[in-house]
Each structure stands twice: as structure tokens, then as C-alpha cells.
Amino acid sequence: MASTLDTDLWFRRLSEAPPDAPRLVCFPHAGGSASWYQPFARHFEGRAELVAVQYPGRQDRRSEPLIDDIRALAGQIAPLLTRDRPLHLFGHSMGAMIAFEVALRHEPDHLFVSGRRAPQLVRDDRVHQRDDAGLIAEVRGLAGTNARVFDDEELVRMVLPAIRADYRAAETYRYRPGPALRCPLTALTGDADPKASVDEVGRWRERTTGDFTLKVFSGGHFFLSDNRSAVASFVSGESPSA
């Protein structure tokens, strides 16, 4: 049984909802933290209990060792999930892969994946092997991190190790063929995402025997930031208990 200490370490509750509303557990992108989902909280208030995952090695967990393996992260998170209300998982980019691996271990009532090609599609990406300047250029180009962070040398030293470890985790992950999920699976993407085409995101349909939905929003890799209200409405509408 998961201890309160463990759940408090990994999860940050961002919004409240009635007992019969789903718990939406959100997994951040590479270099991201639980606080990245904070702006979504007001859009989910009353619709879902929004819970964001805090990975080790950042913010209030900065003193802990980084984990640069998707399955290792999923293996630590899955046993902490409870079923006292409908359980929905939502992951963006690298977070989509962690959410998927968690779902394989603790199948939710609904899995939402965002901004990530289906796991069986492999690219030989090696951003994690670039020097610091190359890594910063990649992150700046995707516009997922406040650009001012990279103007502060001390902040750069603080965040770069987590970004590099996360990119290593995402880029070295390889899907292992196995039984498909049975739960509904919804994939979201931006129509101009340079990291995941609409066709690549659509291939998530192969990972479940349940209902599959593909939703395309306007925007790039971080289309979520420009469509918070619309994304929340869509995700809440997709939720069977909403």
C-alpha cells in the first residue's frame, strides 16, 4: 500500500472536484515539473481532481537523484495510484510515454496522450548528447520553457541536468510489444508540431482495443499552452464521468 509520504512526494493536487468526478493525473514533458500544469487548474476546477506528477531532481525534489529511464519512473509511480474515484492519466510529450507505461502497469479508466508519436514509432534522436548550447537551443525552439530562464546562468545550471536526463529518457525509450490496453485512449496534438505529425500521433490507435479518439488543435509542440480552456473542455467532455 502506498504511504502518504510517497504520494505527497510524487503528486501535487491542483484542483478540487466532487467525489464522483475523475482524478486526472498529469505527467510533465522533458524538463517540466508539476507546476507547469498549474495554469490548467482553474479550467478543471469542479470537473476533475487535477493532480500533477513531480519527478525527482527538480524544484522541491532537486536534491534527489534524477531518473533517466521511462520504465523506472513508471515503475515507481504506478503503485502509488489509487482507485477511490475514476482514474484518468494525461501525459504530454515525454510525459505521454510515462503515462503509457504507467497505464500498462495500472490500467486507468482513460488514457490521454499529447504531443507525442505512438510508442512503436522510433526516431534516432540524440538531443541529449548535444553540448549545453545545443540542448538550450532545442528547448528554446520548442517554446516550452520561459526563455528568461536561459538568461540566468545560475538557473541554467540548475535546470539543465534535469532537461538532459529527461531527453535521455525519452530518446532511449523503446517500446516492447505486448498486449494492448483495453481502456479508451485519446490522443491530442498540434497541427504544426515539429516533433509529432498528426499521422504519427494517430498511430496511438494501435495501442488499445478500446475506443480511440484523435483531436488536433492549432499550434506547435506546446499547443496546450495556447488552448488551455479548449483542452480542458475537450478532456472533460471525453471523460465518461464528467
Automatic annotation (TrEMBL):
Protein name, per record: Alpha/beta fold hydrolase
The source's superkingdom equals Bacteria
Q: Can you name one GO molecular function term for this protein?
A: hydrolase activity
Q: Which family does it belong to?
A: Belongs to the thioesterase family.
- Keywords noted in UniProt: Hydrolase
InterPro entries noted in UniProt:
AB_hydrolase_fold, TEII, TesA-like, Thioesterase
Can you give the residue ranges of the Thioesterase TesA-like domain?
25-237
